[in-house]
């Protein structure tokens, strides 16, 4: 069972809780997009007659997802998010948590629209900019993390222009404090408390978090970096 204080992803369990509270997933087909989302897959897979699949983009994430979900009857595949192997209109729901906030977003969203059924639902968690202008050290965080965050005041417009109707939107920026605290704790205890598999799984992310956690917890980047979740219906 996944514990919220052990989940190492922006948004923690907040996005999943919002998603589950506002949707009926019984008898539906759901795609989860992104590494570190095994806890979401596990929860969705408990829903009656739901069919959930997970895609990740690198081999290490694929292997670790398979280990973490070894007792779950789900498909886990290695795919590029912007060019998947799925059929048109294959899924009722797509769930993406902190996995598409990069420079490929436009192409990924186009692909998600293709594989969503008409009036299908997208639940996306996005790293955002709270201000239009951010300090250099915050831009460095985005660059080293390969992030291209949307401005908070433009995120609804962005998705509406791509023919999504926003059903609900919530700001979970406060959850980033726990995310960076967990990252800092992992760094401090990595040699003692992480297995070799966990070290491999978190290697790149831990390297980024070293700088990011200090910037967020000590240098005030919390004033500029946010995390928001949108639940949206595909609009044809």
Describe the overall structure.
- With 236 residues, the protein is an alpha/beta fold.
- It has a domain of 160 residues: 3-Layer(aba) Sandwich (Rossmann fold), CATH 3.40.50.
- It is 40% helix and 24% strand.
- Strands 1, 2, 3, 4, 5, 6, 7 and 8 form an 8-stranded mixed β-sheet that branches.
- It is globular, with a radius of gyration of 17 Å.
- The termini are far apart.
- The N terminus is likely disordered.
Structure summarized in a few sentences:
The chain is an alpha/beta fold and 236 residues long. 40% of the residues lie in helices and 24% in strands.
How would the blueprint of this fold be written?
Blueprint: H1 14-22, E1 29-33, H2 38-44, E2 51-56, H3 59-68, E3 75-78, E4 91-97, H4 105-115, E5 116-129, H5 136-144, E6 150-151, H6 155-161, E7 164-171, H7 176-193, H8 196-218, E8 225-234
Helix pairs in contact: 5-8, 7-8
